[in-house]
């Protein structure tokens, strides 16, 4: 499976410094908070709710991410520019990785 | 399958908090998003799977992640909130600090 072929939802934003992909759960408060934070910062990104996919597909996505980033997959799981990743929504980590400034 | 309403899930969360001596997340929109998520999970899987964890495919495989998850008894005293931040310690609530996203212990065993 190719991760690029998944049915992501694209969110537009004026900040397009990074290519950001967020793997999230539709049921999770921190996932929603992470997505809302990106929108608040007017950052373009795409996301997918993996809990709404068939379990085989979800497990395949997790296996690919785990193999690529050598880390257990928890949500939200954000991939930045195909190289860096963020697990969970720890705001200072997101600010640092995305090169943002704290308000 | 038996279905739960969000009001039934709110009641469930209040009962868990009372039994464990915890508090519920005071951020109403965050709390409500978790209630919605827990209700969705119950109606999808048949049990209250933690809203911030994905299913491993069966009740048996998910048993430790069913709310209140087994790790919440460690996480609430140590970090002040459980993994999804539905439950807070009395101390964290009194401090006025916000609950934070913590590492999932599920894969640490």
Kindly list the characteristics that best describe this protein.
heterodimer, A: 103 residues, alpha+beta, Glutaredoxin, 20% strand, globular, B: 109 residues, mainly alpha, Ferredoxin Thioredoxin Reductase, two-stranded antiparallel ribbon, 5 helices
Notes on the protein architecture:
The complex is a heterodimer of chains A (103) and B (109). Chain A has 103 residues and is of the alpha+beta class. In chain A, 33% of the residues lie in helices and 20% in strands. Chain A has helices at 29-40, 55-69, 91-97, and strands spanning 9-11, 20-24, 45-49, 77-80, 84-87. Chain A has a five-stranded mixed beta sheet with strand order 1-3-2-4-5, with helices on one face. In chain A, strand 2 (20-24), helix 1 and strand 3 (45-49) form a beta-alpha-beta unit. Chain B has 109 residues and is mostly helical. Chain B has one domain: Ferredoxin thioredoxin reductase catalytic beta subunit (Ferredoxin Thioredoxin Reductase). A two-stranded antiparallel sheet of chain B has the order 1-2. In chain B, helix 1 packs across helix 2. The model of chain B has no long low-confidence stretch (mean pLDDT 96). Classes of the chains: A alpha+beta (103), B mainly alpha (109). At the A-B interface, helix 1 and helix 2 of A face helix 2 of B.
CATH-defined topology of chain B? Ferredoxin Thioredoxin Reductase
Supply the helix-strand structural class of chain A. Answer: alpha+beta
CATH first level of chain B: Alpha Beta
Through-space gap between termini of chain B: 32 Å
Q: How much helix, percentage-wise, in residues of chain A?
A: 25-40%
Tally of helical segments of chain A: 3
Number of strands of chain B: 2
Query: How much is the radius of gyration of chain B in Å?
Result: 13 Å
The unreliable regions of chain A are: none
Order of helices and strands of chain A: EEHEHEEH
Shape label of chain A:
globular
| Strand elements of chain A, count | 5
Please provide the ordered H/E string of secondary-structure elements of chain B. HEHHHEH
């Amino acid at each position: 499976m190719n991760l690029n072929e998944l049915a992501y939802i694209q969110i537009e934003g004026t900040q397009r410094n990074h290519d950001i992909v967020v793997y999230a759960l539709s049921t999770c408060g921190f996932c929603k908070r992470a997505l809302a934070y990106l929108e608040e910062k007017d950052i373009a990104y795409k996301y997918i709710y993996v809990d709404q996919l068939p379990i085989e597909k979800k497990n395949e996505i997790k296996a690919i991410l785990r193999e690529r980033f050598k880390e257990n997959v928890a949500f939200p799981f954000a991939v930045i520019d195909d190289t860096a990743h963020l697990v969970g929504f720890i705001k200072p980590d997101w600010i640092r990785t995305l090169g943002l400034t704290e308000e | 399958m038996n279905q739960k309403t969000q009001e039934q899930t709110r009641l469930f969360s209040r009962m868990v908090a009372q039994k464990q001596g915890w508090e519920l997340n005071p951020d109403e929109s965050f709390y409500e998003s978790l209630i919605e998520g827990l209700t969705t999970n119950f109606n999808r899987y048949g049990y209250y799977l933690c809203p911030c964890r994905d299913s491993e495919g069966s009740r048996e495989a998910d048993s430790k992640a069913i709310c209140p998850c087994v790790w919440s008894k460690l996480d609430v005293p140590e970090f002040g909130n459980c993994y999804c931040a539905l439950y807070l310690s009395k101390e964290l609530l009194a401090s006025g600090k916000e609950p934070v996203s913590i590492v999932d212990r599920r894969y640490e065993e």
